[in-house]
């Protein structure tokens, strides 16, 4: 019994002595970031809409089941221009990186840094579309929804890209107004 008590006291003293009160504490970059779960990946899916490539949209923006979550949870929603497209191999896997520059004021959320990099891995529907029409995207204006996550222990932006189209903007504005009405209704209660 004495041995257990001595071990417990030594362990407690050791734990107390590990950190000096003068030692600076560093806040985690991941503190406060949501986890990038499969549910979140359905909303911020790292994909470009088919409409960006001149194809028919998979889902009408007014009926997109993820639009509300994209608008209300994005750190930034806004127009951006594609400035660069590069194909690269990372960890033995092909992928594209699109450099996009914000173009104008944020539609929702706060304005991001000067530029964003959108990574598109092989296997994404956007990858095969980029293979056939990447040159036509340079200079094209898109609407980007971006949210920062804790993804496998690192901070990472995940996003969704849509066509800069009046129907997409109308859907965003509709969801912003619904969100504002919901906030006012909660305040009245």
How would you describe this structure in keywords?
OB fold (Dihydrolipoamide Acetyltransferase, E2P), disordered C terminus, about 190 residues, globular, six-stranded mixed β-sheet, disordered N terminus, 5 helices, alpha+beta, about 30% helix
Average of pLDDT? 82
Shape: globular
- Gyration radius over CA: 23 Å
Helical fraction = 25-40%
Q: Which strands sit side by side, in order, in the main sheet?
A: 1-6-5-2-3-4
**What is the structural class?**
alpha+beta
Write the element-wise H/E pattern from the N-terminal end onward. HHEHEEEHEEH
The first-level CATH class name: Mainly Beta
Question: What does the model show?
Answer:
The protein has a single domain, classed as OB fold (Dihydrolipoamide Acetyltransferase, E2P), CATH 2.40.50. Helices cover 32% and strands 32% of the residues. Strands 1-6-5-2-3-4 form a six-stranded mixed sheet. The N terminus and C terminus are likely disordered. It is globular. The protein is an alpha+beta fold. The termini are far apart. Helix 3 crosses helix 5.
């Amino acid at each position: 019994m004495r041995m257990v008590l001595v071990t417990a006291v030594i362990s407690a003293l050791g734990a107390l002595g590990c950190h000096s009160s003068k030692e600076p504490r560093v806040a985690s970059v991941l503190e406060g970031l949501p986890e990038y779960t499969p549910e979140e990946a359905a909303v911020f899916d790292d994909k470009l809409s088919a409409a960006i490539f001149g194809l028919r949209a998979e889902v009408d923006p007014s009926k997109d089941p993820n639009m509300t979550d994209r608008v209300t949870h994005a750190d930034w929603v806004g127009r951006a221009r594609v400035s660069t497209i590069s194909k690269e191999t990372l960890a033995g896997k092909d992928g594209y990186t699109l450099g996009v520059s914000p173009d104008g004021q944020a539609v929702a959320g706060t304005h991001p840094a000067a530029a964003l990099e959108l990574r598109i891995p092989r296997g994404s529907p956007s990858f095969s579309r980029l293979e056939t029409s990447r040159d036509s995207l340079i200079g094209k204006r898109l609407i980007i929804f971006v949210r920062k996550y804790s993804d496998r222990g690192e901070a990472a932006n995940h996003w969704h890209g849509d066509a800069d189209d009046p129907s997409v903007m109308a859907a965003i504005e509709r969801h912003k107004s619904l969100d504002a009405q919901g906030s006012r209704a909660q305040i009245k209660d």
